Amino acid sequence: MKKQNADAIQDRVQAMLAAAVAAGDAIGCQAAAYVDGELVVNACAGWLDESHSRPVGDDSLFAVYSTGKGIASTAFLRLVERGLIGLDQLVGDIWPEFACNGKEATTVRHILQHRSGVCIRTPYDSIPQIADWEEMCRRVAAVKPVFAPGSTTRYQTINYSWLLCELAQRVTGKPFRQIVAEEVFQPAGMANMFFGVPDAALPRVARVYRGAGMPPIPAQPPCWDYSLEEIMNTRVIQQACLPGFNCITNAIDLAKHYSLLLDCAGDSRLLSKAMVRDACVMTLAPNDPPPASRASWGTHGLGYAVADPDENDVARYFGHGGYGGPDGGAWQPGRMAFGLTGNLMGPTGKLRNDVVSVIKKACAQ
Q1: How far, in Å, CA of 339 to CA of 26, rounded?
Q2: Which phi and psi (to 5°) does residue 41 adopt?
Q3: Which domains does the chain have, with CATH numbers?
Q4: Could you count the other beta carbons within 10 Å of the beta carbon of residue 174?
Q5: 3-class DSSP state for residue 282?
Q6: What superkingdom heads the lineage (predicted)?
Q7: Is the pTM of this model over 0.90?
Q8: According to the 3-state scheme, what is the secondary structure of 279-315?
Q9: C-alpha count within 13 angstroms, C-beta hemisphere, residue 271
Q10: Are 336 and 34 in contact (CB under 8 A)?
Q11: Nearest residue to 69 (alpha-carbon basis) of 137, 141, 197, 161
Q12: Taking the CB of residue 272, how many other CB atoms lie within 10 A of it?
């Protein structure tokens, strides 16, 4: 991309973030984008807290919730590429306790595609208990699926933490925090992405707030439904490894992760071209409703949210968004990857859509 075009995109995105803060649509936010492997957008605005005591910088850290599922999926697919685990392998062959109550036929592919039927949020007794890996795995392994594995696509929400990453731990003998560091963070040179923030980085973490457009918090919130920001503002959760929802990072590392999955990454790419293609193939489960149109079709591939199919039903877009607005992904035709963070949770992705639209239009010129 020509320098003048990159400068123009940077200026426009920076102005969009500043306007969102000024209008009260954001407290603090970041946006980053890579095109052809080069960082062309690195914008930030606002504050890490409501008191405006800490300004946002490009190394500030934000909770991105389920956006982290995409990064966990990349680490897992690297294990698949090395033959440590098979996509059509039975989960029960790796995790025997899981093969009960109708889950006996569940495969690894079902989990990546959100077709396991383990889609109801797992109960917990206290916030610190969420960080008790063994206890939460025990609870997930014991549940009865909502539907027969493989028959329907339904988002596995928080359960993805334990469904996917316990398998990775069992086939490697390593904790997932070490797996994702070795498979993604270290080869990508990403120093600002965490599943468990170290003490030294905690002062850079933004506090999360609930936006006015979000549903009100009931007097007694149901499990998980309305209190994710309270959970993520808790130090024990910020420092745990819960890849289904507690990734804390900056926009640059989010965008860089996806840029290293595109063809323009060359020898630095994190997954082979064939694996990325397989991860982006769009299918329907037997009981999934057909999309209203091809243009509106979105589903899950192998861990990533996928949309905008080409003539072979391979997604042009892949990535993963998170609760309240953060997002990261790649648009393959434009060789573009992006990351977006913020700490005011909202019900829509308007800022994300506007920022990505500006970058995509520039890529098409």
Answers
A1: 16
A2: -130, 130
A3: 3-68+191-364 (3.40.710.10), 72-180 (no CATH)
A4: 14
A5: coil
A6: Bacteria
A7: yes
A8: HHECCCCCCCCCCCCHHHCEEECCCCEEEEECCCCEE
A9: 26
A10: yes
A11: 161
A12: 13
